[in-house]
C-alpha cells in the first residue's frame, strides 16, 4: 500500500490530489503554476506534500499527470516549425480547410492563419488512388529536393500527408524512411500513423498539430521522468489523455497529440464520478480555472465523446471528451473599450502576474478582483495559503473600469461578474440547443478554483434548480486523473456497404483493430487485468457527405448480422435528426475500436447524515444587485453530512471559495458534497 498522486496543471494553479490506498483518505494541495519553467511546479508540489503531510516520494505507488505544455505550444505559437510534404496538386489543403466561417454568429470572424505557412508546404509528385493502388511512386531525388526546400525555409520537423494514405500508407512511410536516411535527427511524422482517417484536411491538420507539439512534449515528459526519479518516485508516471483515459509517459512521448486536452478531460471524469456518487443522473459540469470555463454534459456519470475539438484555433479529429471552452476564468481580464463597452476575457492574467488582489504585480482588473471588490473573496487565503487577497489592490485595479463605466467600483465589479455569467450563458445555451435538451432538467456541478464562486449565478440564469460543489472542487481534475482508466482509440477506413457481401471485410477490419488494441494495452501499457472493448462504426446513407458514429455489438460483426447493423444506424439517425429511411442503402465508412483497462478506484463510503442547522462564524457585507447584503461566513470544515444553512453565504475552504447568493439554500450529503438549491418560492 502507498499513495496515489494526481496532478493537473492549470493557468494559475497546479493541483494535487493524494489518495492513501490503505485508508482512502484524500489530501489536496495547490501551488502556483510556472509557465516560465513547466514541470517546476510538480517538483515544488512533491516537496510541499512531504513537508505538509509527511509523505515521501518513495511512498508514491502511482503518479498521473495532466499537462498544458502541448496545448500552450499551439495557443502561443511556440510549437516546432513544420515543413509539410503533400501530394502534388494539394498544396493548399490547409489554406482551403473546409471554407467555413469559424463563428457563424459573427460575419466578420476570420479563419486562423494556417498552422504551416504556404512557403513550407512542399508538393511531391506521387499518387495512390482511392482504391489504395499506387499509380506514381515517389522518386528518392524528388524526396531529397522536397526536404531541402522545407529545411531552407526553416522547417524543424516534417509532416507527410499524402493523398489516400488512410487506404495505403506505403508512400508516406517510404518518404519518411528516405528522410530518416538523409537526416537521422530530424523529427518526421506520417499522417496515417497519427490518425488514419478519410478526408485530407482533417487528417492533415491533425498530423500537423501532432508534429508541432511532439518535440516539445517529448522533451518535457523526459525531463519530468528524470526529475521524478531524482526525487525518489519509483513508478513511471502516467499521462492523462484527451479521451478521458491515461497512458504511460513513454506512450505520451510518441502519441503527444492524445494528451492535448488532458486537463479538461480529467476534470470531466472527476465530475462524472462525483455526480454518480451523489445520485444525479443529468449533470452539466462547469470547470472554471484561471483562464477558461469548460462545460460538459454528462448522463449517468458518462460524458459524450466527439472529434473536431478545437485546440486554440485548430481542430483535431481524434476522439476527445466533449467539452466546450469559454474564455471566462478567474484570471480573465476586464476592460472598457473606446466606445465605453465593457469586455471580459479572453485575455487572462494567468499565474504571473495574476489578479491584482494577489499582490504579485498584476494591475489589470480580473473576475477574481471583481469578487474581491464585492466582498466574496478576502475573508481567507486562497490556494492553501499560496496567496492572500488584498481588496485594496482589487479596488485600485477596478478604478479605471469604474471610471470608464461612470459607476462605483462595487457596481463596476458586479457588471464584470454579470457579463462573465452572460458570456457563459450564451455558450452553454448553444450547447443545450445542439443536443436538444432543456437546461432545467440538469443539475450544475461546479468545480475548479473559480467554479464555486460563479456556479449559482449561472445556474440561476439557466433555470437550473440545484448546484453540486464537490468536497475538493478546486482539485477535482487532479482527482479525475486518479480515476481514469487506461484507454485508447483505433480506427480503420473500410468503405463497405451494409449487406451480406461486406461481412467478411468488416469482420477482418474489426479483428485487426482488436489485435492492435490488445497489443497496445497488454504489451505497450503493461496491463494485466480484464479488457473492455467497444465497437462503433462511422455510418451514413449512401450519397450522404458525413457520417454518424453508431455503437455496434461485437456479435453482430462476428455473425455478419447486417440487419442489426443497419437497424442500429436507422435508430441513431432518428435519434439525432428525428427521421430515418429504413429502405435506403447504408454504408460503413470506418470502424472504430475503443479498449479500456480498468484502474483501481477508491470506494468512498456514505457517511451517517445528522440533520442540523449550522450557524455562520460571522456575517460579512457583500455588494449584491446594487445594495449591501449580510452574508453568513462558513468554513467548509464545519459542515458535516446533514448540515444545512440559508443563503446568502460564503463558504471558505483551502482550494476554493463558494458563493451562495440570496435565494439559495445549502446542505451537505452523505459523501460530503455541498448541494445548493434554489429556495422554494
SSE layout and pairings?
Blueprint: E1 3-9, E2 13-20, E3 26-32, H1 40-53, E4 60-66, H2 69-75, E5 82-87, H3 93-96, E6 121-124, E7 127-128, E8 134-136, H4 140-152, E9 157-161, H5 170-182, E10 188-190, H6 191-194, H7 200-231, E11 238-240, E12 246-248, H8 249-254, H9 262-278, E13 282-288, E14 293-299, E15 302-303, E16 305-306, E17 309-311, E18 314-316, E19 320-321, E20 324-326, E21 332-336, E22 342-348, H10 367-374, H11 391-405, H12 409-435, E23 443-447, H13 451-462, E24 466-469, H14 476-483, E25 486-497, H15 503-524, E26 531-541, E27 548-552, H16 554-559, H17 562-577, E28 586-597, E29 612-613, E30 618-624, E31 627-635, E32 643-646, E33 649-653, E34 656-660, E35 664-668, E36 674-678
Parallel strand pairs: 1-4, 4-11, 5-6, 5-9, 9-10, 13-23, 23-24, 29-32, 31-33
Antiparallel strand pairs: 1-2, 2-3, 7-8, 11-12, 13-14, 14-15, 14-20, 16-19, 17-18, 21-22, 24-36, 25-28, 26-27, 26-28, 30-31, 32-35, 33-34, 35-36
Helix pairs in contact: 2-7, 4-5, 9-14, 10-11, 10-12, 11-12, 12-13
Amino acid at each position: 500500500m502507498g499513495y496515489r498522486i494526481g496532478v493537473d496543471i492549470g493557468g494559475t494553479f497546479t493541483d494535487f490530489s493524494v489518495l492513501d490506498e490503505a485508508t482512502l483518505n484524500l489530501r489536496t494541495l495547490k501551488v502556483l503554476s510556472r509557465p516560465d519553467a513547466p514541470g517546476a511546479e510538480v517538483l515544488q508540489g512533491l516537496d510541499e506534500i512531504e513537508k505538509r503531510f509527511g509523505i515521501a516520494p518513495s511512498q508514491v505507488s502511482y503518479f498521473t499527470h495532466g499537462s498544458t505544455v502541448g496545448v500552450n505550444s499551439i495557443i502561443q505559437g511556440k510549437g516546432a516549425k513544420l515543413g509539410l510534404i503533400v501530394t502534388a496538386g494539394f498544396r493548399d489543403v490547409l489554406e482551403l480547410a473546409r471554407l467555413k466561417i469559424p463563428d457563424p454568429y459573427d460575419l466578420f470572424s476570420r479563419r486562423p492563419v494556417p498552422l504551416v505557412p504556404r512557403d513550407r508546404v512542399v508538393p511531391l509528385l506521387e499518387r495512390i488512388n482511392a482504391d489504395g493502388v499506387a499509380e506514381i511512386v515517389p522518386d528518392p531525388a524528388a524526396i531529397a529536393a522536397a526536404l531541402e526546400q522545407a529545411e531552407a525555409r526553416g522547417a524543424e520537423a516534417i509532416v507527410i500527408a499524402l493523398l489516400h494514405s488512410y487506404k495505403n500508407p506505403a508512400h508516406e512511410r517510404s518518404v519518411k524512411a528516405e528522410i530518416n536516411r538523409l537526416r537521422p535527427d530530424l523529427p518526421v511524422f506520417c499522417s496515417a500513423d497519427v490518425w488514419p482517417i478519410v478526408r485530407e484536411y482533417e487528417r492533415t491538420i491533425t498530423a500537423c498539430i501532432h508534429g508541432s507539439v511532439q518535440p516539445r512534449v517529448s522533451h518535457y515528459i523526459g525531463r519530468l521522468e528524470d526529475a521524478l526519479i531524482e526525487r525518489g518516485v519509483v513508478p513511471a508516471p502516467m499521462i492523462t489523455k484527451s479521451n478521458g483515459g491515461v497512458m504511460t509517459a513513454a506512450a505520451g512521448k510518441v502519441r503527444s497529440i492524445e494528451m492535448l486536452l488532458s486537463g479538461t478531460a480529467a476534470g470531466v471524469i472527476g465530475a462524472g464520478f462525483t455526480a454518480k456518487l451523489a445520485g444525479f443522473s443529468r449533470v452539466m459540469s462547469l470547470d472554471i480555472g484561471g483562464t477558461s470555463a469548460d462545460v460538459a454534459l454528462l448522463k449517468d456519470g458518462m460524458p459524450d465523446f466527439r472529434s473536431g475539438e478545437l485546440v486554440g484555433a485548430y481542430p483535431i479529429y481524434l476522439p476527445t471528451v466533449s467539452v466546450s471552452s469559454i474564455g471566462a476564468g478567474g484570471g480573465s481580464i476586464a476592460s472598457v473599450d473606446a466606445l465605453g463597452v465593457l469586455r471580459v476575457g479572453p485575455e487572462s492574467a494567468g499565474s504571473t502576474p495574476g489578479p491584482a488582489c494577489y499582490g504579485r504585480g498584476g494591475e489589470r482588473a480580473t473576475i477574481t478582483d471583481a469578487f474581491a471588490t464585492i466582498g466574496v473573496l478576502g475573508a481567507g487565503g486562497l490556494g492553501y495559503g499560496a496567496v492572500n487577497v488584498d481588496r485594496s489592490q482589487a479596488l485600485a485595479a477596478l478604478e479605471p473600469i469604474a471610471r470608464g463605466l461612470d459607476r462605483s467600483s462595487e457596481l463596476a465589479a458586479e457588471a464584470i461578474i454579470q457579463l462573465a455569467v452572460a458570456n457563459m450563458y450564451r455558450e452553454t445555451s448553444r450547447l443545450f440547443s445542439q443536443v436538444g435538451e432543456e437546461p432545467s432538467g440538469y443539475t450544475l456541478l461546479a468545480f475548479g478554483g473559480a467554479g464555486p464562486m460563479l456556479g449559482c449565478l449561472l445556474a440561476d440564469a439557466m433555470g437550473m434548480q440545484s448546484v453540486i460543489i464537490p468536497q475538493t472542487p478546486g482539485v477535482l481534475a487532479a482527482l479525475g486523473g486518479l480515476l481514469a482508466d487506461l484507454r485508447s482509440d483505433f480506427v480503420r477506413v473500410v468503405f463497405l456497404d451494409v449487406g451480406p457481401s461486406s461481412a467478411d471485410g468488416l469482420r477482418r477490419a474489426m479483428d485487426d483493430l482488436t489485435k492492435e488494441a490488445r497489443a497496445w494495452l497488454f504489451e505497450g501499457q503493461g496491463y494485466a487485468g480484464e479488457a473492455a472493448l467497444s465497437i462503433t462504426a462511422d455510418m451514413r446513407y449512401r450519397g450522404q457527405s458525413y457520417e454518424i458514429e453508431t455503437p455496434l455489438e461485437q456479435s453482430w460483426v462476428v455473425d455478419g448480422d447486417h440487419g442489426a447493423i443497419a437497424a442500429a444506424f436507422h435508430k441513431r439517425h432518428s435519434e439525432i435528426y428525428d427521421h430515418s429511411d429504413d429502405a435506403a442503402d447504408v454504408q460503413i465508412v470506418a470502424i472504430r475500436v475503443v479498449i479500456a483497462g480498468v484502474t483501481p478506484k477508491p470506494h468512498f463510503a456514505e457517511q451517517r447524515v445528522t440533520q442540523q442547522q449550522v450557524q455562520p462564524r460571522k456575517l460579512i457585507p457583500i455588494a449584491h444587485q446594487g445594495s449591501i447584503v449580510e452574508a453568513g461566513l462558513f468554513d467548509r470544515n464545519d459542515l458535516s453530512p446533514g448540515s444545512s444553512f440559508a443563503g446568502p453565504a460564503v463558504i471558505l475552504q483551502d482550494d476554493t471559495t463558494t458563493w451562495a447568493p440570496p435565494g439559495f439554500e445549502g446542505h451537505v450529503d452523505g459523501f460530503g458534497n455541498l448541494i445548493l438549491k434554489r429556495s422554494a418560492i
